[in-house]
Fold this sequence. Notes:
InterPro entries: Beta-glucan_modifiers, GH. By secondary structure, the chain is an alpha/beta fold.
Amino acid sequence: MKNIVLVSALAAAGLFVGSAGGRPFEHKRDIVTEIVYVTETVADVIVYVDGSGVPYSTTTSERVGAETAPSTTSEISLSTSKVVLSKSDIRTSSSSAKVQVEAALSTTSEIALSTSAVRVTSSPSAVTPQSTPQAISEKPKSASTTPSSKPTAVDTTCTTTTLTPSLVTPEYTSPTSTSTTSTTTTKASGPAPQSPPPAKPAPTEQAGADTMPLGITWDAYTDSSGCKSPAQVASEFSRMKDYKVIRIYGKDCNQIALAVQNALKNGQKLMGGAYVDTSGGGEDVGDVIQTYKNAIDQYAGGNWDVIQLFSVENERINERRMTAQQVVDVIGSARAQLRRAGYNGLVGATETAPATIDNPSICAASDVVMVNIHAFFDRNTQAADAGPFVQSQVQLVKFACNNKRVVVTESGWPHQGNANGAAVPSPENQRAALDSIRAAFSSDMFLFSSFDSGWKANTASTFNAERFWGIL
């Protein structure tokens, strides 16, 4: 009798559970505030009934603790996640009255990098992700690797007992680990933390494919305005060997042939130029180009690679000795003659920054913008700020010249002369200024000048410093 009653009670319990299973979840909802599943496994259920068959007491010989799986979905920060619960599949066993509840959780996020479905049952071995946790932004190299930032949206953690969103930093375990914990992270916003960027390397004197290495200027005259001897030229080029490009200004004193020979010997390049002055006293650009061709043919086998760029004049517009249109015309004429001679490099004109900014036609006519910029002539600039000052002037020139490449063809600081406001000439200040310029420029820069120019005249307009710009 007791067994019959027991079986009847178990069957009734199974019918009750089976009829209740899954219906509340047929209507999918966008937001579920909290759903709690309680799974309770019992064994050897004994139901006592009275003579009328009405149960009045139930006992069990073993009780297994309940396992709960709370699931909460919230709209947090920028997350637009939706949690949809599928129809539950609840099965009963009449022999043991053991109830298994399986719920499939499907999460779809518009911001997540991937979608992962997770199955949860009362058995620890059933807690297995259906796909790899691809939503994690970076795969750790070992099981000890832990993300260092806090997620800004819903993070879903799956364990053997709970499935709950979390806003705290999750601890990630490599999929290859033997741990039974699997974590899937869905990030709605905020980049992953990055290691501090490496320190910016100091500029080096190496030029890129479209720039020139640090250069220096040189002239061919002695202090008494005579011409330097071939031996003196060779000695000075040797002293300039650390500078890979040497700027020369004209053709007198046989400087073109001497410069080509010594540059080739020392592995250096040249910035060539003509001293054109249409108002009188200047050089003829055609004669200068022919002189270059003769030297290239004789000492370089006709190879113009030793010449990096060519300037047709030096500050003639700034001194109001030529107009912008005259300079533009000379640039066009020189380029055509140089091309016929075999030179296919850069051609332009050298001016000060203000003259270049005021005459953008010079930029348009030139293959590259060439400017002389001296921080010493700005009375508000100290020697240690020479580099940033030159940089600021280059940016102004680039803006006026449609962002064209700029080569600074002169920049330096005198070691003797009169002060110009905060700009004070001295050996110490010259070193400070040159250090500042070198820190700001690793290429497309010619330091002025290699040696003092005793042949020049000191004037009040140049603060009696014109002779004292030599570096070596």
